[in-house]
User: What shape does this take?
Amino acid sequence: MADEITNINRRDFLKNAGVIATASALGACVTLRPEMEQAANAIEAIPTTLTQFRCPVCSKNFGSFADLKNHFATEHPDAVVPVTSKLNINGKDCEVLIEPHWTLQRTLQYKLGLTGAKHMCGRGVCGSCTVIMDGRAVLSCTTLAVECEGKSIQTVEGIAADPKWKPLIDAYCKWDAMQCGYCTPGMLVTAKSLLDKNPNPTEEDCKQALAGNICCCGTYPRHPTAIMEAAPAIKKGA
Amino acid sequence: MADLVGVHGQRKEFKVVGKPNLPGKLSYAMATGIAKFGSDYVVPDMLHAKFLRSPYASARIISVDTTKAREIPGVVDIVTWEDEDIKNLSSGGDRFMMGPPQPFLDNIADQEGAYDKKTGVKLNTNMFEYKKPTILDRAPVDMDLLETRAGNAAYGDNGISHSLANTHLVITAIYNAIGKWVDPPATPDKVLRALGKA
Assistant: This one.
């Protein structure tokens, strides 16, 4: 209970701090939508330290990593021993217990509860799992989580929780740049990565940046429209 | 700007297609990654299924050796069409995964399918044996240009797969491009004739 109260207070503080910071920058108050607050909550809920070490083979829990390794040596000598990895997701440091072959996408979904990076093709073709790593849009389905130590990773939740990017999300919704919505977070992350580098993109720039993102519903023409409409507001707010 | 009004501004009379919309109920949830799809759910001790298919089209799968796969720690079970339980589940076991053909195609396109009982391989793959009517068997259809609220593409179709499925959308696209109506099937000679070039 105490933790919950602390979390709420911290969350409210962060939320208000973000709003105040943007308000002072924009000269007007930005109200986050409930979905954006949920994204902020999802980031807040990321577990930062490991308290339980669960065996992925037999589901037994252990109090320390050493105990888990001993358990593998005696019970599952042929199985791959899990590893711990320290990641920085949306500005938050966290530690995860994963198997060495786990991708960043899988780690985000299974260990950190962030479902914005979607698993679709699993082979770096469709762009649905796009995240920003050290300022570069990368495909989290073909990036091993253990490779990401010491790197700053931003997911769509981090973008959604930042009031600066609200115009982009608003424009995406206004222009219906989605149908089933499965590829949309990946598209949005790529769009953010584009706007980071080029605050005034042309339609051609948008098409080029989004070339690696595939949408089965055929929403393509809407993305450049939404990005180009949002660009001036984002530039003004930056 | 993107050509949302259709064929570079020629379709000015569109009232819905290409115009901004009120966001749908789930628009914000989908854009922010908060929306949960089936594959996003994670429960403790969740088991994962891996489907193994033949890497070769129309290959005849005689048997599947599962011994090595069973030795991997954590593997709970492996099922093939040869398992008795699966045979009972799928009315004879000749229309199931890992060997036999896709059940969807079975139901939609082909009611006359014949399968090898042992391997599940389809025996009559000739398209001429399909008993469903084709576009040529249909009575004449009057065409009307329609707009739909959900349309993302210039002609109001919902997705790429939809436009592929609907011949009339192709006809509509040709009409928008050349300004002349061509009856389906839209063959090149008909288009040339409509343009007065053949």
